[in-house]
Amino acid sequence: MHFKIKINEKDIKKVLKLNFVVPDKCKKIIVEKKVKESIKKSFRNKIDISFFDGENKWCGRLDRYKNSLEINDNVSTVGAISSGEWTIYIEIFHVFEEIEIELDICFELYSGYNVYKGELHSHTNITDGKLSFSDLTEYFKEEKYDFFFISDHNSITAWSELKNVSEIKCYKGLELTTFYGHILLLGINEHINWYGKNGNLGKIKSIRKEVKLKNGLMGVAHPYTNGGPLCAGCRWEKAIKPELFDFIEIWNSKIDNFKNNWEAVDFWVGCLKKDIKTFCTCGADLHRTGDLDNALSIYALACKNDEAHIVDALRKGHYYLSRGSKLNLEIQDKIFGERLYFDEDITVNYEILNPSTDLQLFYISKTGLKELVKTEGNFTWNTDNLKDFFVLMGINQQRELEFITNPVFLEKTDEV
Length: 416
Description:
Blueprint: E1 2-7, E2 14-22, E3 26-36, E4 46-52, E5 58-62, E6 68-72, E7 84-94, E8 99-109, E9 114-119, H1 133-142, E10 147-150, E11 169-178, E12 181-186, H2 204-213, E13 217-221, E14 247-252, H3 258-273, E15 279-283, E16 297-302, H4 307-316, E17 319-322, E18 326-331, E19 339-342, E20 346-353, E21 360-365, E22 368-372, E23 376-381, E24 387-395, E25 401-405, E26 408-412
Parallel strand pairs: 9-10, 10-11, 13-14, 14-15, 19-26
Antiparallel strand pairs: 1-8, 2-7, 3-6, 3-8, 4-5, 4-7, 9-16, 11-12, 12-13, 16-17, 17-25, 18-20, 20-23, 21-22, 21-24, 24-25, 24-26
């Protein structure tokens, strides 16, 4: 990728803006700068160049003395390199002449995604769990999980033990236990409260803003579970505004009445039918051993198993929920969480690995629910809607969810 920018004295104290697109699975961005100028000693042209990702997170800078820059996903200030549109800001402090700046941008990519099994919702005995942090870690190891988030109620005390974890990865989470429902926060780096210093309840918009500033994710936990007086605060008592959340926990394995989970599934699908982009998650809501016995898990597609890459996969919807079956879904070259622009019939490819014997397989779109007979195959599909979505779902004879994918979003266009 190559940019050529001409700058003269009229541009002094201006900030020029350029955009470029970072591909998926990016491991490193390499920037080389060349400046055509005649004044280089006593009077130096002063121009700095800054790079921001699609979330407006600062990722690197070239000052006037630097001619190369590497943006690496191993650097703590960058984390996982997010794909999509990035912005270059050219800060022009002073120039003495007309100059020309050339930027060459190259990308180093990972070869592909790995699939990591994880849990987003777990508790220790620091709050209402029955297991110590070390016992919880051993339990996840025994169950062959690759990662889990610790999400104690309104407490981050257990975070202090993350440095002691080995053979499995544990990441930072927090469950805000409020008067009107539970909010699950993932990937934040410090405590967030749901009320102010004076005791006034925080508005959800304000919490959302604070979470976003901390590069975290925010979702509704078990929205349709039982509420007060038996479980005061557990059921979501406000109208759910999905545009304020990154995800909705549609299946909570602690809930004995699966009707409550299917209510959450139905609400989430209703959001998709209204063209509201939000993702689904599941939660073992782990408090004791045995809670993983019949639980759905997260299967995240990520280049690395570290917090930045897993959170990035969750942010993009690059994951599915499953009780054990592994699956592949691809529409053209897009996977779940991604958007496909198309102008004609599209090809759906899918495969369910190690399916249960009593599996019923469906796909969901704006036109409703349609059964699939085979556990693998490809077929041609079209929609009359300008915007649509495609979700793959499997259930068992007990009417429990066996697996469900996040959507592939579809949008018709004359130009692909």
